[in-house]
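User: Second chain of the day. Same drill as before.
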Amino acid sequence: MRALFVLVHRFVGLTIAAFLFISGLTGAVISWDHELDELINPHLVEAPGRGGFLDPLALADKLAAEEPHSFVTYVPLHAEEGHSLPFGVAPRFDARTGALYETGYNQVFIDPVTGDVRGKREWGAAWPISTETFVSFLYVLHYSLHIPEMWGIDRWGEWLMGGIALLWTLDCFVGFYLTLPIRRRAGANLKKMGVGTWWSRWKPAWKIKTGGSAYRINFDLHRAFSLWTWALLFVLAISAVSLNLYAEVARPIVAALSSFTPTPFDTRPIRPNSDLAAPKVTFAQVLANGRAEAERRGFTEPAGDIFYSPAFGVFGVRFFNPGDEHGDGLQLNPDILYFDSDDGRYIGDYIPWRGTAGDLFLQLQFPVHSGRIFGIPGRIVISAMGLGVAMLSVTGVVIWLRKRRARLAVRRPAEAPHPRNIVSAE
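Assistant: Same format as last time:
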């Protein structure tokens, strides 16, 4: 059995090593995505205007009038002096070409005082990489490797990285098993040895012998770090599966084990590009409906932003205090109320910490994976774990290379021809 597990660990580890190396390094950086983005792009996020703020809904209407080839898809409502407002846009369908318009950007930064456009960019663009797209490039690289759309499907990268996460989840258990002091000879088991003896044999696996050779330190790093952080590694792996394979794996499993409350994004079919249409209600109407519903429910946070999804025909109004839009801490994410884009009627909600066990499990996946559930300390831990995952990928490959060279060295003498079988050239 152990020999089989060694083979599984070897081949699964080699299969996922490069992917986890990239995902680990990018994860360490994007734990600080918003802070880093603001640091390297002051020309976008800073606004020189001083004075009274313009109505964000009026700015959205003005932007929509200036964007004949795009929908306005995101309207921030909390203006802050000295900071621009990031509006979202998405391309409309071009009947002449049978494809979406190529506008070259999906974010527009507007000064909330003057209404001037500070800049535009394509969030998540694969190329060219600039300071404006650097953070979002790493973000998309982290979960999809920027694998492009093929045969009308744009989720190949998410499926690939979701499959890698599934293998990683399996390897968490295989790797843990291989650290245990289980031996093939009869009697060498926990029952016969006793807990004390068994632990004394397992204890070295948790240590790094800094006085050993370079290879020994490499091996100890790989094994000891995996043991000390096993729970976190498993949580990262399983949450990566849930996030990348939500519809394919996470939701069906949760539905089989526990009921869950679907959102409109779970129950509505995705519209083809040719059916994308402008909403029949305005952002102002949706905001009024959202505020009325929030007041009826007793929400204490104000409306913080509104988003529109043309692919599902859904508006969402999120409620949060200024500065809390990213959902750090036990809040998980802001409360969301959903409204139909045709008639503005209420069609569902997302309320953190409310619902069935299945609802809570799905709600926790991103906050746990990103570390945001524990605020700044959680993000520090996740950033360090990203570096640790990259280190495990490298040390694992080094261990394989060293053992492979050893196996080849043992095999060569046996394969070398005997001197008396060598025919002389004379």
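The radius of gyration is 27 Å.

User: Great, on to the next one.
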